[in-house]
Task: structure prediction
Amino acid sequence: MLHNLHKKRRGFLDISFSWIFAIIIGAMIIAAAVYGVSKFSKIEETKSSAISATDFTILLNPLETSVESAKSIYIKMPVESRIKNTCSLAGVFGNQVLSLDEYIKNKWSNSGVRTYSENKYIFSKGIVEGKGFYIFSKPFEFPFKVSNLMYLTQEDEKYCFVDPPVKIKKELIELNQPNLKVGTNCLNDESYTKVCYGNTKCDITVGYKSKFVKKGKDVMYFKGDSLMYAAIFSDKRNYECQLGRLMKRVQKLTEIYEEKALNIQAVGCVSGVLTDLGTLRVLLDSYKDSEDLVVLENQIEEIETINDYSKCKLW
Amino acid sequence: MIIQNVNYGKMKKRKGQVKIQQMAFMIVALTILFVIVGLFIASISLSNLKEAKEIANEKNVQTLVSKIANYPELSCENAFGRDRANCIDSDKLLALMKIGQKDYQKFWGVSAIEVRKIYPSDNTTCTIENYPNCGIIKLFSDKSMGNDRSSFVTLCRKEGFHGAFYDKCELAKIIVRFEDVK
Result:
């Protein structure tokens, strides 16, 4: 009877040690394989996002204009994409930092991979999301050409420019970018962000003569149309940071023009702007934010006038 | 008559031990197989990544070479009568050679930029001393090997003649080099 009971007990737990060992190790191998595959697919997603972000940055190279006053392109991404636009002031020229997440398998890839570019200035909201994007570029002169500024907007982000100056109106019509409308027809359409020149009851107010753009509580100052667009399409943080980077570039270009002016004096080409360029370089040392543009304005205009009427033009 | 005292319990235990050993070997072999397969996939993925980086580099240089002459650091702007496209101001290049050209290497993300006069041809490398009597202007002449792309440009400068100056423009080629992915 005791023997039978012993047999019954063995039957109840009749799994040998080798089986238990195999099951545990097998489960561990399967778990490791599942972990490996998920990790691998995450790496692939990150890789894809990094490649897309790099390609996106490269696609902006042709926007470096020569004689054109403005240029617009449309970029369609293969999948829904989220572009995070940040900026850093570290280094000689600062950095344009872009990261791109893709909407794959019903979730955002969240790769966190950033692409850095020292020679690009993209003005946009912090996060731009969609499948299609419009980018238009316009040269920034201060007083010489400094760079092309790029304004990034998502396809469904529409702007309505109400009563802009004739010059701006003409430029926007010629640009023919579908998400930028001019006139009063779009004024009552809720889907548009209203940009008004003078009227203060709009989403964005532009003081064209006083050279400021007001967005809610944020006020950004500008000099020239390219910076006006920059202030309209970007948030204050991005605008001030990119402007800081631009001023670093102006400083470097001022050095180049000073050096050039000294070199060509030897062949009898004397430019009158040499002293003023030195003053501009000193003024730029104390640049903090867009409010300081007022301080630089007089110097810039003086340099521009001297160079324009000089027999020996530096630019 | 020899009576063998066989201990069946011990034999069973030894048999079990052999089985466990077999299984352990099997598991080790299986793990090694998985690791090898994993390494193989990882190496393919890494080589794909390298290839993608190379393609990106090439695309960047291809688009950059056609537009680099329009960057204000190199371009003629209005200094030579009118606004010209694909025109390089060699006086600016010399100025760039003198002041922090290294800063611009990272700025354009290339390993070297070279501007060669095509007509009239001259194989002398420009220095601050021999300029403008030379034919090759090198910016950040990196010794590392790499691929390059080139584009035709106009190379202009101010030239002196009997106390007066005039604009002199020549045909040149801009060569942009990028490093191979290691």
Remarks:
- Chain B has a mean pLDDT of 85.
- Chain B has three helices and five strands.
- The longest strand of chain B covers residues 146-161.
- Chain B touches chain A through 54 residues (CB under 8 Å).
